[in-house]
Structure formats: C-alpha cells, structure tokens
Design a protein that fits this description.
Layout: H1 2-18, E1 27-34, E2 43-50, E3 56-62, E4 66-77, E5 80-85, E6 89-91, E7 96-99, E8 104-111, H2 113-118, E9 120-127, E10 132-140
Parallel strand pairs: 1-10
Antiparallel strand pairs: 1-2, 2-7, 2-8, 3-6, 3-9, 4-5, 4-8, 9-10
Organism: Blastomonas aquatica
Signal peptide: 1-20
Protein name: Copper chaperone PCu(A)C
C-alpha cells in the first residue's frame, strides 16, 4: 500500500512540474536576408521558427518591400542536390525549424531601394492555425568570394 501511495504522489509531482513550464509561443527569430553576389539573381531569406502549443504549418511569407518570395527546400535525389518548391513547412509543438543555407529557405527577388537603404525588410509569416507573425530581417552584404555564405541557395543551382 505504501509503495502504491508513493507512486501516486510521485506521478502527481511530475504532473505539477510539467505544468510549471512557460507556455509555448509560436515565434520567428534570427531572420536575415543574404544578398546574392550576382545582381538580378535571387537572394535568400533565412530564419528560425519555434513551435507553439500545437502543431501548425508555415504557409507563406510576404513583404511589401519584396517583389517575389518563394519557399524552397534543398533535397537529395539520386545522389544530386536539387531545389524543390515548398508549399508549407511543418512546425511541431515546441519544436524548432530552421530555414538555413543548404536546407529550407525563402528565395527573394526584387528588394526595394528603401529596404536596401535601411538595411532591413519587414516580413509577415502566415501559419495554418491563423497566426500571422511580423518580423524584421537584416539585409546582409555579400560574403567574400570563396565562401558559401554569399550563395543564397547554399551551393545549389535554381
């Protein structure tokens, strides 16, 4: 009887401790645009999404400062890396999804001069749960030749 009572108390204590975690909040962080080293070629938007209290999907990214945006993903197929359009990105509860060089990213065409002069652009990230999150992305200058940091697709051709 004592052992059973101890197990019940331990289970209740664990349940109470789990409830002490801060509530999960869907958010977008660490956003930046890596400018393409080639004029008139697309640049890339990178960022991290942290999942909230329930699974959702990132459905779109928009900006009044950008002419065109497309979500893409780098995939391996038959030993070759290639780009594929990405309709949505699954964001798990309390998970982390990184849009980064060589993986998921948003191709960016036509950054307006106002954003270039400010050094940043405003974006709206729209999720399947109805949430819209505004975030500012710094615009990073072209990386030195010979580094992968200047290649918006992480070495992939579009």
């Amino acid at each position: 009887m004592f052992r059973m009572l101890s197990m019940i108390v331990a289970g209740l204590a664990l349940a109470l401790l789990a409830g002490c975690q801060p509530p999960a909040q869907l958010l977008v962080e660490k956003a930046y645009i890596q400018l393409s080293p080639v004029k008139d070629s697309p640049s890339a938007l990178y960022f991290t999404v942290r999942g909230g209290p329930a699974d959702t999907e990132l459905r779109s990214v928009s900006s009044a400062s950008i002419l065109r945006l497309e979500m893409h993903e780098t995939v391996e197929e038959n030993g070759m890396s290639m780009m594929r359009p990405l309709r949505a990105a699954a964001i798990p509860t309390r998970g982390k999804v990184e849009f980064e060089p060589g993986g998921k990213h948003v191709m960016v065409w036509g950054i307006d001069e106002g954003a270039r002069n400010r050094g940043n652009a405003e974006f709206v990230f729209t999720f399947s749960n109805g949430e819209k999150i505004a975030a500012t992305a710094a615009i990073r200058a072209i990386a030195p030749a010979g580094t992968n940091g200047g290649d918006p697709a992480g070495g992939m051709n579009h």
